[in-house]
Amino acid sequence: MSITRGIALTLVLSTLAAAIGAWGGGQYVVRRMHHATPLHQMVHQKLDLTPDQERRIDGLERDYAAKRKAREAEMRAANAELAQAIQEQHSYTPKVQAAIDRFHMAMAALQKESIQHVIAMRGVLTPQQAARFDDTVVKNLTEQAQ
């Protein structure tokens, strides 16, 4: 095999590996978002919310669900762009990088909106409920980091 063919093969395989990694990471993130979180289960099952708190939190959750759905659609679209760019170019091009950047921007925006949602829910709680809520938030964030 010539050096040129070896370099070309290495570039194609590297690009393919990067694409598979980006796609796999995106799929993992989207799948995790569709499961009920321990935080939401705890809020609804263990905090003895008043009817007013339930109503307010339900409204916050409806608003967040719409935002989450839009961000997840952005991530799926970016993954489709990435697949198309790789299929067309077979190398790490600006178009591939743009699709990866678009995915990361949507994922970062979703994370920010998720944290804003958590903070908004906390604002509905009493100090005692908020203390239990905070413990669960910290536990979830540190478990995910490990």
Radius of gyration: 21 Å
Can you tell me the overall shape? elongated
Question: Mean pLDDT, rounded to whole units?
Answer: 81
Report the major sheet.
none
CATH class descriptor:
Mainly Alpha
Number of helices: 5
Query: Low-confidence stretches at least 5 residues in length (pLDDT < 50)?
Result: none
Number of domains: 1
Rounded to the nearest angstrom, the distance between the terminal CA atoms is 43 Å
Structural class: mainly alpha
Helix content: over 70%
Task: Give the amount of beta strand, in percent.
Answer: under 5%
The CATH level-2 architecture is identified as: Up-down Bundle
Q: Based on DSSP secondary structure assignment, what is the total number of beta strands? A: 0
Q: What is the N-to-C succession of helices and strands?
A: HHHHH
Which fold name fills CATH's third level, the topology?
Four Helix Bundle (Hemerythrin (Met), subunit A)
Name the features.
146 residues, mainly alpha, Four Helix Bundle (Hemerythrin (Met), subunit A), 87% helix
Give a concise summary.
By secondary structure, the chain is mainly α. It has helices spanning 3-33, 38-46, 51-89, 94-122, 127-145.
Notes on the protein architecture:
With 146 residues, the protein is an all-alpha fold. It has helices spanning 3-33, 38-46, 51-89, 94-122, 127-145. The protein has one domain (3-145): Four Helix Bundle (Hemerythrin (Met), subunit A), CATH 1.20.120. The protein is built from 5 helices and no strands. The longest helix has 39 residues, at 51-89. The chain starts with a helix and ends with a helix. The relative contact order is 0.13. The mean pLDDT is 81.
